[in-house]
Amino acid sequence: MTDVASLWSYLATSPLIWLTTTILAYLVADGVARQLGNPPWANPVLLSVLLIAPVLWLTQTDYTTYFEGAQFVHFLLGPATVALALPLWDNRDTIRTSVAPIVLALLTGSIVAAGSAIILARAFGLPMEVLLSLAPKSTTAPVALGISEAIGGIPALTAVLVIMTGIIGAVTVTPLMNLLRITDWRARGFAVGVAAHGIGTARAFQVNPLAGAYAGIAMALNALLTSLIVPLLVRWLV
């Protein structure tokens, strides 16, 4: 008990408190999701946000202070992005035999995801910085932040929008695909990988390994394509 109290006293005066809070929140959220049988609405990332937000509000902690403590998690996104090459390599034979449908689905999904965000943002009269921050929302966070900064968006806002996109995609993909009666695990996984990046991919692996593999392929390819098409779409549509 004394050791626990000493550890808490140390963490409470250190930025590590927010890294510890983030990890504990995710462990609790993941445990709850597993106990409930991993239903779509019990997404661990969503539950983690719901656990951490009240803590930040009660302690009057601003985003800068929280991020300073939890930035190690952000650092890990870099190696995770590099690891996207693994599913591409592991499934190279599948990709080689399905190049045409994969390219078509990737182009359609990537252009619709970024283009619809820009068009809707313009239609609702959102400020230019918000529009530019919204455009790369469907790709993985490290790539989206780089795109946002390059085209004049607000990287911090982009990070929030990327997480929201991933959570919404992960929560809705299973019931939506069931409603549309899409039973091909490859199609289901690829769709969620393009639309909802890593959070959607994690959900796909929970549902079916093949869907997860295709979601990983889609996420990696979409990260590359989005970095190429978003600057072009912004130039044409804004």
TrEMBL record:
The keyword Transmembrane applies. InterPro entries: CidB/LrgB (IPR007300). It is found in: Membrane. One of its GO terms (cellular component) is membrane. It is a multi-pass membrane protein. The chain crosses the membrane at residues 6-29, 41-59, 71-89, 101-124, 144-173, 185-205, 211-234. It holds the Pfam family LrgB. The keyword Transmembrane applies. It comes from the Bacteria. Keywords: Membrane, Transmembrane, Transmembrane helix. This is LrgB-like protein. It comes from Octadecabacter antarcticus 307.
